[in-house]
Amino acid sequence: MGAAPPPEALEALERRFGTVAHDLLSDRRGSRAWKITTPRAPLVLKANAPEHDGARNKAAEMEQEDRHLLVLAEAAAIRPSYRIDAGAWGGGRWLAVEWVDGAPLWRALAPTREDTGNTTAHRALLLRLAQTWAARLAPMHAAGWAHADVQPTNTLVDPDGAGHVIDYALACGPDTARLPYRGALTHTTAPEIADAILSTADNVHVQTNPPADIWGLGASLFWCWTGHRPGIYEDDTPRPDKLRTLAQGKLHGLQDVQPWPFPALEELIAACLTPDPDQRPTAAEVTAWSP
User: Fold this and answer.
1) I need a labelling partner for 111 at 20 to 30 A (CA). Which of 63, 205, 232, 259 fits?
2) pLDDT score recorded for residue 51
């Protein structure tokens, strides 16, 4: 069964949707998520877990994500319906959003990592995923925002092969009232962001821009298609050294680790991983990418 959701959240959702049921989806790094089944539609409920090690700032991040969703909806960067409700509970903050029917990127691309993955259907899936994923980012970028945590865990692939973006807690926009951004998942951190993190104190905000999202998209495709993270380092390498490797552009050669040749995807990934952020394609250009 796992931990129960905050009663305050369940009470608020039941007032709107009727009797609800819940299943724990994840419980890690100071936060939890549940699938909430209602008479109308499934939802996702997230809340901080204050008793966890590493729970620092999770309640503040939850509140920050709620603010981001309201601003992004106002800017037409996301669907207004995506945010359902939010509030305080005895241990911190909770947030409810729409359920996205999709598989995590790593699992969705598992068949493409096989030696036998070079099929027409898999090639179409990889390109459609990249294009639709970028299409989700394009309105954010047009509004002056970066998602700032583009990585496999935050990308779901629906049954039609389209990519969907979730988790806006770390997004960076024009506002300055926020927790300092110090990067997200190391393996998908753009080189310019890695360099900025290494060259500033831990309490200094590092502003992330749309080109860093594009690097994260390319790195995630690289990782989930080949089975290898782009950066050349070991699992137990300290994070600062991993960031230094990325800042210096020390990456695996795609052709050295790819499961099978796919020039159209290779060209796209290489463009996204261009060291100079100004030379990377925009999200709109990735959306329109064609072999």
Assistant:
1) 232
2) 79
